[in-house]
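Anyone able to model this chain together with zinc ion?
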Amino acid sequence: MKSCGVSLASTTSFRDDGKKMAAGKESSECKDGSVSLTDEEKQLLGGLDSRLFGFIRLHEDGARTKTLLSKAVRYYESLILKAEGKVESDFFCQLGHFNLLLEDYPKALSAYQRYHNLQSDYWKNATFLYGLGLVYFYYNAFHWAIKAFQEVLYVDPSFCRAKEIHLRLGLMFKVNTDYESSLKHFRLALIDCNPCTLSSVEIQFHIAHLYETQQKYHFAKEAYEQLLQTENLPAQVKATVLQQLGWMHHNVDLLGDKATKESYAIQYLQKSLEADPNSGLSWYFLGRCYSSIGKVQDAFISYRQSIDKSEASADTWCSIGVLYQQQNQPMDALQAYICAVQLDHGHAAAWMDLGTLYESCNQPQDAIKCYLNATRGKNCSNTSSLAGRIKFLQHLEQLRANKDHLNPAQKLMLEQLESQFVLMQQVFHKGQSSHMSGSNDEQPPFSTGPAQYLQAASVGIQKQTGHRTLPSNLVTQGAALNHISSHIATSGGQQGINLTKESKPSGNRSLVPEISRHAGDTPNGCVIAKGLSNHVQQLIAEPVCSPNHGDCTSPDLLISDSPQISATVIGKVSEKTSNNHPPVHTKTDNSVTSSHSSMISTTTSSTKSTAQTVTHSVIGLNSPQNNVHKVNREELENLQSSTKTNLPIISLKSGPQIIPSMSVSIYSSSTEVLKACRNLGKNGLSNSRIFFEKCPPPRPPTSPYPPLPKDKLNPPTPSIYLENKRDAFFPPLHQFCTNPKNPVTVIRGLAGALKLDLGLFSTKTLVEANNEHVVEVRTQLLQPADENWDPTGTKKIWRCESNRSHTTIAKYAQYQASSFQESLREENEKRMQHKECSDNESTSSDFSGKRRKGPFKTIKFGTNIDLSDDKKWKLQLHELTKLPAFVRVVSAGNLLSHLGHTILGMNTVQLYMKVPGSRTPGHQENNNFCSVNINIGPGDCEWFVVPEDYWGVLNDFCEKNNLNFLMSSWWPNLEELYEANVPVYRFIQRPGDLVWINAGTVHWVQAVGWCNNIAWNVGPLTACQYKLAVERYEWNKLQNVKSLVPMVHLSWNMARNIKVSDPRLFEMIKYCLLKILKQCQTLREALIAAGKEIIWHGRTNDEPAHYCNICEVEVFDLLFVTNESNSQKTYIVHCQDCARKTSGNLDNFVVLEQYKMEDLIQVYEQFTLAPSISSSSS
Ligand SMILES: [Zn+2]
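re: yes, here you go
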């Protein structure tokens, strides 16, 4: 095993103390209870660290290793105790590793924490970060786990458990709904041929399931089916794949008509059960399928199998309840529901159904309590309609109670309510009978809600048994529950189903997994699959919808090492997640339409006390299970509270320090440096980075301190008004724009001052010039001016969805024009209406306070239209050369002109064609370069701008909203920014105005009117620009995002072509060059030492910089190209680390060299600080 961390054997303290302690004795427990270790044992322990996590059980002597580890832990602990904690920091790190390997997570966390607090450069220790990440992962503290894992790969890209990390990152990003990142990491895991706790078919399964989660059902189906073709597919994987396919066919409308779908679903599930007859979940799904096609007996049998095969599940019991209810067996239904809520007292659907059942038996008091519980449930979606129902019943009850003392008006009210009640019963009766006859298609409208079912049931009950009363509410008679659930055995007898076995959650069966499973009710909910290291047999897929939910979304999977603790957190995670994703409601498959799939947990203060008592009484019934649950929760809370104060990662100082302000080493001669490197890099091909000064992983800056006072949060936008051409070329304008104090500058009237012909970019001219030119289209919702609402208009969100498609300039022009015409027409109509009924206006505006937004109109935004082709756009591009040099697309003072190749949209012009509301979501420019944007008109644009040093705050907001700051589309909530003391510049850009976005400035833009814009990037030759570009380059690397500007390539070109007189800028460039020089040299030496041939492959003119085909990092000088692509001259480039992952000894690769070492050295040596010129270049 490669050594990439601190090893125990090398820590002196251990040896010394060990000797003292052991005092010459052989390994044994001393009489006083202290422990000692033999030299052999110490040697063994030296090789054990976090990297072994998940692999120990695979060792032939796994058990012996565990015994050794326990002993080592005792030994360490006693040493630490003796030394009163004054031991070397590595000690704690090792103790953390040992506890991690023993799966004692709380102890592992605390040991790692102590190491972190003692060791300031802990970030250099990849095994520590990895171990810490694993602990966070175990606790489902995904935010921190992601950070720790990303940092491992940043400090050591060749880390031997990179595959394990990518797999876990994939899983966590999936839960966080960052699907793009998730897919990227799963793919990175898949190409890696190192050992891993999941097999590649299992990783492929996760990719297929990721598609399913994203509702890309055709992709998912294809991927699943492809998996089934795999030779020697393990039975468990096969069973799970078939299970997913079955459930997907049952749920998803895309996959054919209902009859076909259901028959496929049943076939798949039956095949799945052939592969794994013991899957309770497959049986449960099968039951749902049978139930939905009216095969009641088969459904009962399947549910029974499900209960026999697996742990009791609230979902299953709830489904059984539904079936009983459909059979007009209210007592049995009651008992089944009670089982469900006993197993999961947050099971909103079960509470709801129980409520309807009580209501049907004219026990509104009990019903109300159940409904209240339902609204507090985890996955209660229709809280508001439920609240309405509760109010209705409460009112009815109140009036009934005071029947004899009502005034006439109240009596009338009571009559009305009663008749309403009866009416609903009748309405439902129809709906229900249609279901009973087996036709599912005609369902009662959803809006009637829970009441529907209950009335039918009530009718049924009355038919059967006259006025039967159900046992009163379990909320008040909690103690009765145990009896009832055991009683089920007999009452269920009619169906010949013995339900006793699981009816009472008993023994050591934990409640927790059940609860967590129910988290799966969320649209993106999770399913628990235990143990990465336990392989697939525990990949349990869970239904996303509870029994009487609409079958809406696919199950989701989460892998976790600890079913127990993770369960509680997964619940939280998915709750959080789901809030951001209002579910797409699809039709329900049972006639019981009492609940659906979204969840808003509303524990309002007024209802809280009842909520608690209710919860308690239910908890009381399951005390053993609940103790487990409680403990876990406490543990978690401890963890969370400690997260706030002293969990390692948080206490880190933030602020990227990628370029240390060092000035000595870069002045030493490069030959000396390289000589030193040569001596260091002798031992084969080990990670080159070890020999270099490591840089700490980049981190986003914390919010600037002290916070700005509230009255400074809407600063005036720096604006400059130009009168004439001379103003435009006045040098201080350049200085003003690039001054880091001005995040944005609006240059008003620029086009007029320079007499630019903006008409060249008008829609009319564009159509005449190139009507077939490609336009990328973003379909967006037309939102209120500065707000961003979810599609239903219920709440403000950060995520802003837009679908991408393509069209032509001609077609978009047509759309733009017709949109304008339509708006004129609407305006006229409005004006007419306004005249007619201006009286009514005041009344209608009364609603505005609580009015829901939406539904929103969709609009199309024509974006990223490429104007790089100077033949097609000659006139247009020529017109832009009239601009002052510092804003020109091409100029000597523009870093992007020194790349030697094109980066579309950065050093070329892009055009935007807009209708009102067209939005460019929040972002910083690629690699923090500056940007120039001119509004062509005729309409205006509105801009929102936040200074660079607040990007960390916005990054936090994105994370909180499960968005990727770099990759997702988001639209900030201005109120939240105000609360967080983030200043926002806000201004209107009129036609002819140029907006200069300074380096790193965060901004978002929307069109007020119909207009076109042109934009490109610029890189002023300043220390600030270079620093921010390099920082973002490193942050992108950490985040696995491609840097569009190849900063290494650019730095060398700068050294060749530019005279730098700013000492700060010079030092930074020189330092970067030195680092790269050292890396190239070390890697070169290592390859040669390992006998790998390096083939000269010089560069052609304008050859772009290279990126790794797998991980997208920039690859400079030494390119790892697959043999195949080399012989085909297609040159598929890999970075060293990715090459090694696919081919450990690099046999499948040739190494191409693009620069002579002497040349690089020469460039480095000749790059010197230029004497400063008083005024900077144009
Ligand atoms: Zn790579």
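The CA atoms of residues 67 and 1038 lie 38 Å apart.
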